[in-house]
Amino acid sequence: MKVNIVGAGNIAEYHARSIKALGHELGLVADFNEKSAQALADKYGCRWTTSTDSLLSEQADLVTVAVPNAYHYDVAAAAVKAGHAVLCEKPMTRSSENSRQLVELVKQTGRPFFVGYMKRLHPTVQKFADYSSRIGQMRSGLVRVYHPMPDASWPMIANHLALSPGSPMDGVFVNSGSHMLDLLLQFAGPVKKVLAARMQYHDGCYPKVDKMAHALLEMENGATVTVECGWLSLFGVGRRENGWDELIELRGDEGLATLHTTWWERPQFESPVAELWDESLKAKESFNAGMVDNFQEEYRLIEKALSGESVPLATVEEAFAVDQLIDDIFAAAGIHSQKEGVVTQ
Ligand SMILES: NC(=O)c1ccc[n+]([C@@H]2O[C@H](COP(=O)([O-])OP(=O)(O)OC[C@H]3O[C@@H](n4cnc5c(N)ncnc54)[C@H](O)[C@@H]3O)[C@@H](O)[C@H]2O)c1
């Protein structure tokens, strides 16, 4: 499989590494920052360009969109229009309206389109699907996403935001929470209504991005789900006591299914853990498939999908559902753009 990448920043490194590790061809990387494009190309032995158009005019089996969220829509739509199969980083776009347009475009062109919610691909997370189907009538749920953020990082974030409306910092809820909302929708079904939401901000950042987000959801299955996300300077909390406190819990009449997910940048050091409390057996079962690099899993499954196999990669419609939920939660908090003060596309 030949893959070309648009965006040669932080996450592109994980994509390039996985493409090469699996023996695929990394053809070309494009970034409007020449130094970034050249550095990634030099490290992984491929060609580079500053022109996304020239990348899109080249044949490839897949184009990976690894630019900041603000540019996902433009780049992904251009790639689909140029006839490419696309892997778009998450969240798919920064507005449900843009995501709806992508759904239409993908439908019209019939090109394969995958979204980078790669946490769902881990075998332990797939096992959680089984656990969550064994809790009986779901009554309640919890989505928790706390990531360690040193206080000293906020001036740097404020600077980033002030310099560029296309900063990859979109707040804890979008940057960190979107993966877990994808898992919630996958395992607990659709949301009927957002009952309440609140965002809290860090002083001194403009445009503002949330550092804490809370939401209360009513699911179509009747359950109530609490969502809590935060970037706080707590470094010893969470299952691994490394500050990464990320879990999804689904509680029913017959059991409790729990999934602890892991720090995205440590796929080779940490593995998720799934647990099921079974009330009828009065016993707890747990599952840990060990270390699986979610980024490699993404490309392994894309290759299968391109040859017609059915795989659990996030579809354009599923990613649209996440973006719709994100917009609904912001609206319930009385905020109509993901970065307050910035008009989203
Ligand atoms: N899957 C995950 O767990 C995960 C983790 C981190 C980041 N991400 C996602 O990866 C994406 C990129 O984040 P990042 O941290 O790598 O950002 P980054 O700022 O480190 O890199 C983005 C790069 O894209 C370039 N760029 C911006 N707009 C461009 C355009 N229109 N055309 C060409 N190049 C362009 C920038 O110059 C920069 O080099 C975001 O969507 C983010 O949400 C996903």
TrEMBL record:
Domain GFO/IDH/MocA-like oxidoreductase: 133-255
Segments forming domain Gfo/Idh/MocA-like oxidoreductase N-terminal: 2-117
Pfam families assigned to the protein according to its UniProt record, in alphabetical order: GFO_IDH_MocA (PF01408), GFO_IDH_MocA_C3 (PF22725)
Name this protein carries in UniProt: Gfo/Idh/MocA family oxidoreductase
Species: Cohnella silvisoli
